[in-house]
Design goal:
By secondary structure, the chain is mainly alpha-helical. The chain has three domains: about 20-110, Fumarase/aspartase (N-terminal domain) (Fumarase C, Chain B, domain 1); about 115-360, Fumarase C, Chain A, domain 2 (Up-down Bundle), CATH 1.20.200.10; about 370-460, Fumarase/aspartase (C-terminal domain) (Ribonucleotide Reductase Protein R1, domain 1, Orthogonal Bundle). The protein contains 18 helices and six strands. The chain has a two-stranded antiparallel sheet. It has a two-stranded parallel sheet with strand order 3-4. A hairpin with a 2-residue loop joins strand 1 (about 155-160) and strand 2 (about 165-170). Helix 3 (about 35-50) packs across helix 8, helix 4 crosses helix 5 and helix 7 packs parallel to helix 18. It is elongated and about 100 Å long. The mean pLDDT is about 95.
């Protein structure tokens, strides 16, 4: 076969070849060439399996593996793909192999279906991609915890309904996102476990007719085990959907954090400054400093969510076992992986450069009556039924708003004069930093609990991404 001549792995049953329109419509090399290295490594492992099964001699196996080694190097360069019009990456690799070893290349597909080969290549690629994603999650969480520690002790208002609700510590806020992304890492790890099973030896759907040691193949490629049913694995894309769900949830969390920091860095909030390196200016308005990095993260969610929806709908109507619809699994995976990995790298850089301006959120907490719950609970602890305590605190807030009074304006004497249920000591609760000290339950914002949670988060970093 001459260099560049087209190879087809099927066709004996057909009187004529595929039409040009069908070839163009069904070809996947333009996107699945990303699997080239995985395809080569899988074929090397399969060559060793063929030797163990007595189909290849040691010399033939060595010749094939050596040729594949060189192809792995070549496949990292654009020249490897120039002028290629092969149906897919698997056909390209076989054609390139035949150019190097001649007729021996015809043996590499003995007992192997492209169905299992596609599953193998995609699993290998996705396994490594998940590892990259988890490493990026860890890098971001490292920056997030560093950001929490840089402004330790800062008081901010927590929000419900985007209205100031109760005061919390800055670290407590950062740790809330730590928990979200720690769960994302856990979901990625769980998806990886389902990806990390070897399908080779399953054949097209009924299992191979050759005596392959599937466990040995799995060990050769670093898989945790083998798939259990040849029919299931032929059409199974649950593991891809698991990854896309994990990726979508991760992007959802990135979007929520981005929205927070877009708001908090606005002039209206003025809580934080974003670094110059993660913002942009306006082509018309010289004063602008736009949070483009965060807006892009928020915007890229649609592409990841769309990838999950796309594959979910694609798989929905496919009968047992393999159907060509499954070719449509790769682009959603590639799109999602590119977006989450890029977004994770970006948010880590934002977290590294963001600066909290603690006076602004502290003032917001002080003047907004975010301490009202602390006051109501103090009344309840002092014997007032909570529903009555809630009304008394509400009346105090209403009176203050009508008379232009801030919490700090209430002295012990004024409080006692307002209602006999109030004690002078409760005036201390008008300082947001004071009331939060009562929130001692695990997971609360009391300084001691937050310090413990921060230390625990730092210790848990040892298991993130592992």
């Amino acid at each position: 076969m001459s260099t560049g001549e087209k190879l087809q792995l099927w066709g004996g049953r057909f009187e004529s070849g595929p039409s040009a329109i069908f070839e163009s419509f069904s070809g996947s090399l333009h996107f699945d060439k990303r699997l080239a290295d995985c395809d080569i490594r899988g074929s090397q492992a399969f060559a060793r399996a063929l030797e163990r099964a007595g189909i290849l001699t040691a010399s033939e196996r060595e010749q094939l593996v050596t040729a594949f080694d060189q192809m792995r190097i070549d496949a990292r360069t654009p020249a490897f793909y120039e002028g290629a019009n092969d149906e897919d990456v698997h056909t390209l690799i076989i054609r390139k192999l035949k150019e190097r070893v001649g007729g021996l290349a015809g043996k590499i597909h003995t007992g192997r279906s492209r169905n299992e080969q596609v599953s193998l290549d995609t699993r290998l690629w996705l396994r490594e991609t998940i590892d990259e994603s988890r490493a990026l999650v860890k890098a971001f969480l490292t920056e997030l915890l560093a950001l929490a520690r840089r402004h330790q002790g800062a008081v901010i208002p927590g929000y419900t309904h985007l209205r100031r609700a109760q005061p919390v510590l800055w670290e407590h806020y950062c740790l809330a996102y730590f928990e979200m992304f720690a769960r994302d890492d856990e979901r990625l790890a769980q998806a990886r476990a389902r990806v990390n099973l070897c399908p080779l030896g399953s054949g097209a759907l009924a299992g191979s007719g050759f005596p392959f040691d599937r466990e040995a193949i799995a060990a050769d490629l670093g898989f945790a085990g083998i798939t259990r049913n040849s029919m299931d694995v032929s059409g199974d894309r649950d593991w891809a959907l698991d990854y896309l769900y994990a990726a979508s949830t991760l992007m959802l969390h990135l979007s929520r954090l981005s929205e927070d920091w877009i708001l908090y860095s606005s002039d209206e909030f003025a809580w934080m400054d974003l670094g110059d390196g993660v913002t942009s200016g306006s082509s018309l308005m010289p004063q602008k400093k736009n949070p483009d990095s965060l807006e892009l993260i928020r915007g890229k969610c649609g592409r990841v969510f769309g990838s999950l929806t796309s594959l979910f709908v694609t798989v929905k109507g496919t009968p047992m076992t393999y159907n060509r619809d499954m070719q449509e699994d790769k682009e959603p995976l590639f799109i999602a992986a590119d977006q989450i990995n890029g977004s994770l790298a970006m948010i880590a850089e934002v977290a590294r450069t963001v600066v909290l301006k603690p006076a602004a959120p502290a003032e917001a907490a002080e003047v907004s009556w975010a301490v009202a719950t602390d006051v109501a609970e103090a009344l309840a602890r002092n014997g007032t039924p909570f529903h009555e305590a809630h009304k008394l605190a509400g009346r105090l807030v209403l009176h203050s708003l009508r008379n232009g009074m801030k919490p700090a304006d209430w002295t012990p004497e004024k409080l006692a004069a307002f209602a006999p249920e109030f004690t002078g000591a409760m005036a201390a609760l008008m300082d947001p930093a004071e009331g939060m000290k009562s929130r001692q339950v695990p997971g609360g914002t009391a300084p001691e609990r937050v310090a413990e949670a921060l230390a625990e988060a730092l210790a848990r970093m040892e298991t993130i991404g592992v």
